[in-house]
Amino acid sequence: MKENLVLKAYEIAKERYAAIGVDTDAVLNALQKxxxxxxxxxxxxxxxxxxQAGALSGGIQATGNYPGKAxxxxxxxxxxxxxxxxxxxxxxxxxxxxxxxxxxxxxDRDQVEPAHFASWIAWGKEQxxxxxxxxxxxxxxxxxxxxxxxxxxxxxxxxIEHTIRCRxxxxxxxxxxxxPCIMNLWIHDGSKDITVNRLYYRELLKxxxxxxxxxxxxxxxxxxxxxxxxxxxxxxxxxxxxxxxxYGATHNKMVTLDTGHFHPTESVADKVSSLLLYxxxxxxxxxxxxxxxxxxxxxxxxxxxxLCKEIxxxxxxDKVHIGLDYFDASINRIGAYVVGSRATQKxxxxxxxxxxxxxxxxxxxxxxxxxxxxxxxSKSLPWNAVWDMFCLKNNVPVGETFIAxxxxxxxxxxxxRG
Length: 418
Ligand code: RNT
Ligand code: ZN
What we know:
Helix content is 44%, strand content 10%. It is α/β, with parallel strands linked by helices and 418 residues long. Strand 8 (254-258), helix 8 (269-278) and strand 9 (282-286) form a beta-alpha-beta unit. The two termini are 41 Å apart. The structure holds L-rhamnitol and zinc ion (ZN). Zinc ion binds next to loops. Zinc ion binds at residues 186, 225, 258, 285, 325.
């Protein structure tokens, strides 16, 4: 009965869209190719599996203490697979270095090796889930306020060694999965109060990056992520947006745009078309900043919609990698993955359904009322019927029916965790 409804609605939507020159079958195919990189750290509030794990630091914070977070690698893997079962399409998993399989041993950050990720690589293969990677500068006794930009040579060398090793791990992942592993480099380096040696720390960071990127790899791609400020580091961020755009443009590196890392009224969507001209590709961390980089669960709002529309309008679906980045510890964590992922995909559905040819022609002819009117009318076209069809085709719950399934997993599994 439900299936019947979805099919009926899709047929009507298909006709409606065809009238404005949009082929919904082609949109379904395009949507099928859009992979999200699911951030492993929503499952356990960015804790990771280091035996020596300390408290979360580096100016980021997961607030809330909803019961049932993943406590070990098995639980995290099970949770990710559960979440993925409610998300249509094939997706990737984005790991942080602290999520290595350390087998109960203390492995310091400058000692990490590909072997610590062998079980992840095997698991990814088994599940058909490709891996992405991140070095981890935070939550460590040597994190302090400065890592790769630290004037203390021994601390700086420690983090350079860590990041060099992480690239080697990413290379192994990429090789094993026959698809480049994208490695993100985000460090929290900054300062709480007025800083007078701003140039000096940036020189140090630039030099660290040059050393880290000295080896050319074939199976991994680097990206570098900027930020406005972190908690306790409010006045100065070494790796600012200008810094990394300059570095990326001159060293052919991808820049990571985290939607929570800009001034609240700045449009992240508008950055896509500029970056694409000067950097090879783009990595996204789709998040929802509420007043600041608060990492709320992504929803279908104007910011995410604009971002997806820009990717499609720039014809850049294969140049923009979409990762999620939020950590909400105040609600069911599996549900958080599902809501944020599906919201991003809903935005992408609408972006792909835009009557772009007609809109472009209006713009070229100076028919600006017509452009505005069609943009407004397209907002109420039956995109949701195409989205439901996409879920149906992919054998995942259509509409809100996943809520009960997430609740069931909570009752049977996560609520039993101590
Ligand atoms: C922090 C950055 C960074 C982290 C992850 C855990 O502000 O957004 O991407 O969220 O590395
Ligand atoms: Zn991020």
